[in-house]
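WARN no homologs supplied; continuing
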Amino acid sequence: MNSVLPIGSTMPQAFRFVGLDVGGTTMKAAVVDDHGRASPSVSLPTHPERGQEAGLETMCETIRRAMTAADVSLEDVAAIGVATPGTMDLKSGYILDPPNLKPWHNVPVRDHIAKVFGKPTAFQNDANAAALGEYWVGAGAGVRSLVMFTLGTGVGGGIIWNGEVIEGEHSHGAELGHMKIEMTNPRLCGCGKRGCLEAYASATAVVKRTEEALSDAKPSVLHPILEEKKLTARAIFDAAKAGDALAARIVDETAAILALGAANLMHVINPEMVVFAGGMVEAGDWFLQQIRRHIPNYAFPVPAERTQIRFAQLGSDAGFIGAAACARQLVRGAFRR
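OK structure emitted
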């Protein structure tokens, strides 16, 4: 996690931090105290099509509104954390060429925020930040190491080891959605490569795999939904719960794929906990139990038995809480347990 500490900045006696989570559609921010408790959050539309200068100003305005909502002044804030998607250079504090923030290019996020507010500013990948948020006050509260898979349009990831985010030497650590899980007849991923976990287990991939299966399947409750062009991952999971055989097969295969991804990380770093976050966790404990059931098929017995497998707890708040956690680390250091 990289930072800028402006010369002459002062620290308030009661530590508070602003966390900002920048998404392709909205920006969300809140003031978070030293114990991870968040004030009411605020959101503004991102409108990336308006350009990066407008985007930087929207970031600043979201931060200002978060402080207003929390009834705190800038003097009450110890540091600011910003989490963004896309390719980035964490050491320099730049977003490079983010696919879902086009036409932004080489955006000096960290330095801009630090200059505007005169506060120590942390900059982090959004999935890494969300993982740190869950580690701090979410599903991982109390553990020393955590791996998180974020299941949405794509598959994001974060790895926290003894309170530190694993960023990697070139800012591309913990890209869990792009580990290779199939190379015999690999699917094409949105990243342009083949065989990635994301190409099989994201919400987008679950829908695509279902569409392919429905093309020559026996009657399914999903056929009319497909014809109406309303097929979603939620509809597929609901159909599986209701007993539809094809949907149940797709969901079970997805659980097995995610278990394989988790087992790969168990064998590489042996974390204390694996967490799944994102829209698909709304399927509930039933889906989590399916993932757990497949873990022994891929992992060594000891990690299969001892690694905790859980769903995230913070929902969409994880990003700004994690961004605030990054800010907190500038002042407090890593979370040592």
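Residues 5-11 have pLDDT under 50 and may be disordered.
OK
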